[in-house]
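Q: Convert this sequence to structure tokens.
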Amino acid sequence: MPRHALVLFCFLCNLVGFQAFSCNLQVQWHLFMSVRDIPVSPGESFDSESFLKTAPQEPGVYLMLDAEGGVLYVGKARCLKKRLASYFQKARGQTIKIQTMLAKVRAVDTTVTRTEGEALLLEQNMIKASRPPYNVLLRDDKSYPSIRLSGGEWPSLSLHRGRAGRNKSDRFFGPYPDAGAVRETLALLQKTFHVRQCSESFFRNRTRPCLQYQIKRCKAPCVGLVDAEEYRRDVEDSVNFLKGCCQGLIHDLIARMETAAAHQAFETAAALRDTVVRLRKIQQQQIVAVESGDVDVFAQIQTAEACCIVALFVRQGRVLGTRSFFPAFHEQEPVEALENFLGQFYVRMAGRRDFPREIILPCAVPGYRGLEEAIGQLAGKKVVLRHSVRSTRQAWLELAERNARQALAERRADRSTLLQRFMSLKESLHLTAMPERIECFDVSHTHGEETMASCVVCDREGIQTGDYRRYCIKGIEPGDDYAAMAQAVRRRFTPSSAGQRPVPDLLLVDGGIGQLRRVREVLESLGLGTLVFFGVAKGAARKPGAEVLINGHTGQELRLESSSPALHLVQQVRDESHRFAISGHRRRRDRKRTHSNLEDIAGVGPGRRAALLSFFGSLQAVREAELDELVKVRGISRALAQTIVDELH
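A:
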């Protein structure tokens, strides 16, 4: 990607996607216009002395470029000239990483910012866009789940993942380490406070209470079986629980229980009593609730071959859980790796509404002031970084460190097992070398409807979800699995796609001889006839362990023992490909089946669609209706009725 295009991309990302940044449009334009185009000299070493004479002495971001103009490293500095001079000084003591990187540098590009905080935000966007090899790369790009409380008269609770929605009235609570923790909390809230958790479309179209009302997990606001004031109190109680104000909530519930009993509303008092008992039980089970505060705690364990960083989330003094990260690094110093990780971690959290007020680190990082400023801009409040803590916070830090050691030990064991599987696969398939990258294709459809193909990737680091691809198959006979597989492989290995992703050492195809024959034709037409590929057939028994591997070039069948590590690896990749294909197919199929043709007609919004369906009873009846009958529906003019007739026919 050209350097100016890269910076423009980051500028647009900030402008569109990260509106939580306090940097305004003028600042973003300042960042973009400050880039200077430095020509790359492919055959010459970089003239650092000439460059440093004109280097800016302001905060900003610098890009180190190789002979082809590719980005080797992205960094930030409070003073660009001093930071860049430290790279090119003749003094000894530079790390192997810096020495190797400087040997490849042919140009340096700089972008001036107003503050170090702005430099960090721009730096992380550039890292995300170009993924330079000498930066810490945060591979796990999953967003953090949280609990969403919708706005409106009858709010609902739901699991939310990703950037916050556009509705400013929504509130978010979290983050939670995984979706399981969110679902457990939602189930508890549903049993205790009976606030609805259904979708808006389900809520608007109910005419009678659903099963949740029958089992006493919802008060059926959809059909008016609860008044607005009572429901509002239930929502407030849920919010207080999510904020961690358990003790105050219990006192309030006890007061309301006594008031209800005094007014002889014994059923209400009994329900409040049950709620108090449940909350007290929850409070007793909470093992870490000794101190208030919203804190993120980080621990780092780094060895020669791997780096593990664990984030421990604490909200209102309650430990919600931990999450482990294994960022890819290129001979980074531990402190430098931690600083780079924190920048990427919180920039990716920019869509969330819940930032901690305090971040606890295992050691001091050099650019902590810039980090504080940047994270504070993202959070919209003051955020403090600490590394020297005592008492409860020290216990949290030790807990995070224990989790980091355990996670790193488990990863070592997993990687050792994975390496054994790769070695076994090489021997079992009689390959000349151990494969570095495996890709597997599968096809999913329902009687030919909405055919979807998947491509999943596994290398010696494990499953690489960031390289997954789905292909919507079009232009074939419904149910033609051979043509679907051929189209998916062709689209994957066309020169435009293949140039962006490396060619695998081993290709697996979920299918038999028919699929392999079509795949071989496609690969030969693309000049990839030497690519090793095998089919994974289910075998006569169609049971796990009875799979048959078919050589795509010779057609020779190979049956491995059910205990073979090579077969376990093939099964893992094949099952992941199947899961990825079928989940995409079901989502696309369900979206089509729930889509109404009326939604495609201009001028027919939700109100008019509801009026049409209520008047005629079904979409088929609307399709069969005459023009004069359509005009009888409230809100449908003759011109709009004619448009509906034309569109539906």
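Confidence is low (pLDDT under 50) at residues 11-39, 283-291.
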